């Protein structure tokens, strides 16, 4: 299986519009992009089959549900028990994501909690996992650039065409 599938501008336009509104219909996408519904359906199926489009999920504002404190916790661990530590982190609902790192810290955990007191309790729970040697927490104050991939995809395909599909009209903005 190839590690990278080629994308063209049409693929990126479809992904951009799905990023803006994952509930947009195929007919609406086709109309906005000036291509047939079949073309959009085939492209979406290919993007899913090649593992580029991983799914559709809601974006939840955690602050609005009472989880206004976001933090990054780095962990220095006994690497011989990394699997058990990752499973211990997975069991903590406040842990949104865990990444394995190269460098001084071994793991990076993104967490969401309601207060600094809750963060203190969460950190204590993490330190209680066998093999965790040390944690360091940093807090997110603001997110001026939220997670995004569109500018990178635009750059990647800036010289690519639309493959075999040519829009009947320029895509609607």
From TrEMBL:
Native source organism of the sequence: Nocardioides oceani
Keyword hit for Calcium: no
UniProt entry keywords in alphabetical sequence: DNA-binding, Transcription, Transcription regulation
Alphabetical list of SMART domains matching this protein: HTH_ASNC
Domain HTH asnC-type: from-to ranges: 7-68
Protein's UniProt keywords contain Repressor: no
UniProt-recorded name of the protein: Lrp/AsnC family transcriptional regulator
InterPro entries the UniProt entry points to: AsnC-type_HTH_dom (IPR000485), Dimeric_a/b-barrel (IPR011008), Tscrpt_reg_AsnC-like (IPR019888), Tscrpt_reg_AsnC/Lrp_C (IPR019887), WH-like_DNA-bd_sf (IPR036388), WH_DNA-bd_sf (IPR036390)
């Amino acid at each position: 299986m190839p590690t990278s599938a080629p994308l063209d501008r049409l693929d990126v336009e479809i992904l951009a519009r799905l990023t803006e509104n994952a509930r947009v219909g195929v007919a609406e996408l086709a109309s906005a992009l000036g291509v047939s519904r079949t073309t959009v359906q085939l492209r979406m199926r290919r993007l899913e089959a090649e593992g580029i489009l991983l799914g559709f999920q809601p974006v939840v504002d955690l602050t609005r549900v009472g989880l206004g404190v976001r933090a990054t916790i780095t962990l220095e661990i006994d690497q011989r028990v990394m699997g058990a530590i990752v499973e211990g982190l997975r069991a903590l609902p406040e842990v949104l994501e865990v990444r394995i790192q190269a460098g001084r810290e071994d793991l990076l955990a993104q967490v969401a909690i309601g207060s600094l007191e809750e963060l203190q309790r969460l950190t204590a729970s993490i330190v209680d996992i066998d093999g965790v040697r040390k944690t360091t927490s940093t807090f997110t104050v603001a997110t001026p650039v939220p997670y995004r991939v569109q500018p990178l995809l635009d750059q990647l395909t800036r010289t690519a065409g639309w493959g075999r599909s040519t829009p009947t009209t320029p895509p609607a903005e």
